[in-house]
Amino acid sequence: MDRRSKILVADDEEIMRRSLTDWLEEEGYSVHAVPNGQSAIEALAREDWDAFLLDLKMPDLDGIEVLKITKKKNPQLPVIIITAYATVESAVEAMKEGAYDYIVKPFNPEEVSLILHRIVEHQRLIKENISLRKRLAREIFFEDIITKDKRMKKVIEMVKTVAKTNSTVLIYGESGTGKELIARAIHNTSPRKDHPFVAISCGALPETLLEAELFGYEKGAFTGATTQTKGKLELAHHGTLFLDDIADISPKTQVDLLRVLQEREFRRLGGTKTIRIDVRFVAATNRDLEAEVKKGRFREDLYYRLKVITIKLPPLRERKDDIPHLVDHFIEKFNTEMGKRILRVSAETMQILLSHNWPGNVRELENVIEHAMVVCDQEIIEPKHLPEDLTKKAPPLKTLKEVEREHIESVLKACHWKISPAARILGLNRTTLYNKIKAYGLKPM
Amino acid sequence: MEILLRPVSTLAPSLISDLISDLDAISPWSFTLGPPIQNLNHAYLPDRGQFDADGILVHLLNEINDQGKVIGLIDVDLCTPVLSFVFGRAQLGGRVAVVSTFRLDNRFYRLKPDPGLLIERLKKEIIHEAGHLGGLYHCRNRWCVMNASASIVNIDLKGFKFCPACLNYLKERGNNGP
Ligand SMILES: Nc1ncnc2c1ncn2[C@@H]1O[C@H](COP(=O)(O)OP(=O)(O)OP(=O)(O)O)[C@@H](O)[C@H]1O
Ligand SMILES: [Zn+2]
Ligand SMILES: [Zn+2]
């Protein structure tokens, strides 16, 4: 690991100094704690620090004074004000003087470790000269696909190796699993990266419109075709064409597309000139194409053309370990977009996110976080910030045992825990009921 | 290395015995059941309604006798002078540590009780504190048991295992068990 980050602590209470030092050392920081403002200023002059935790209330020099001196001598150093509930106003005052943040005693460990982590990370980025710009750039590479899931990682490894070739790739995955993301990553990793990536959603358009979009048209080809227009195929020349929802195209378009895939040439609607193209195709679907072939709804020859390399993206509910990572990722993304400073979701919120089924997969999660961040007016996202349908979800399915336990409990309650009437209602004998009460650990409350 | 577990008497004995056999299997140490902790009153902080983790460590240290290490298992809310709560606490590289079930229990988060999950969490936190006793700092690896567990979600995410770097550190210090 890199050098341990150095933190200076100034606090007049010995017990606070010791306790804070213990904890920060456990967190992996190197800590030096001083009891007053004067020694803090000396320490600041003597050495370089990564962060400064400053108690406002100290006997010799007032904390605000120490802050002012620090900011004058070392404007880059993040200063975090330590305060008690009673003196939060002076902490707010300190923020105006350039403090990075303030924390109220006793600290929430999660909050403080996040603040420190953010500071250290920020300084690392400055040092490594990674501009935020670059990190937020539109271009998607495989590194931008957030996942810890084994199956996803395997898919990514596989796609990385084929990205450089010209092979057609067929991506299976439910809606919102990241099919387009993968397609973009393929494009950006291929020799075609300096040419266009063009996407078309085949499911959204009726046959004639889709054909017009794909192949383009000559002036007068149909009513409304007032100018000559290039289609997506032409626009993607030397680049990549991403055909989303490929299972939805009509039999006629299937034939036309098959011809393009075989001959690498086509004509605009209403045109006579043959246009040659050099395009790499990536297609995606959320349906079982093979089944569609068997049912006669999708041409087998086209299917074989498309499925040269096939990958499957697992739905989010089958890789729930990814949820916390994606949540962090989207919080960071929307913090930048919305100019907010939201830290994280609360434990309770995370439990809700982890137990949701995510029929809309990562896109749904992204929308949920975006919604929450719009309505959230604090640093931590609580369940009340989530869209209603997430918190008001159907009760989880129960096992027979759970139902039995709850039913026995409710009958017992109704009978004021008198065993005989409860046993009669439940149709059990007293011994059996006693045994069940014991087994389920039921107690009158 | 031997680690003595000293539970408070209010923790179910069945929970403790399951715990010990599991811990032996999944950690580099050997765990045995020690005498129960009698009384935590000395560590109670009336103004916070919580128990001072450091006070409990001092108490355990006073009662320690042989060469081994001790981890206390308790079921009340723990804090330190600077932190509003902790799941557990250890002397870094020292001899005593404490873990509480209080915030590991689903009921604290107003969720359905889950005894199995509680044991899983408890095991992770015991191994985590034992790692501190072995001299380990917190680890940046999110899946490593030494990852800082500032929230219950972090605990649920990480595993029982030490990452290679942490394991190596323990080995170099002769902490890899008998
Ligand atoms: N692993 C991931 N890491 C980061 N962002 C992701 C990931 N997977 C999906 N996303 C984001 O989720 C959203 C949906 O992804 P994408 O559009 O690629 O899904 P799709 O499978 O093509 O959906 P559809 O089939 O509905 O068109 C996008 O905003 C994308 O950036
Ligand atoms: Zn720890
Ligand atoms: Zn580690």
TrEMBL record, chain B:
Task: Quote the InterPro entries the UniProt record gives.
Answer: MetalloPept_cat_dom_sf, Pept_M54_archaemetzincn, Pept_M54_archaemetzncn_arc/bac
UniProt keyword terms in alphabetical order: Hydrolase, Metal-binding, Metalloprotease, Protease, Zinc
| Family annotation (Pfam families) | Peptidase_M54
Keyword Flavoprotein appears in the UniProt entry: no
Needed cofactors = Zn(2+)
Keyword Metal-binding attached: yes
What does the record give under GO molecular function? metallopeptidase activity; zinc ion binding
Choose any GO biological process term that the UniProt entry carries and state it. proteolysis
- What name does UniProt use for this protein? Archemetzincin
Which species expresses this protein natively? candidate division WOR-3 bacterium
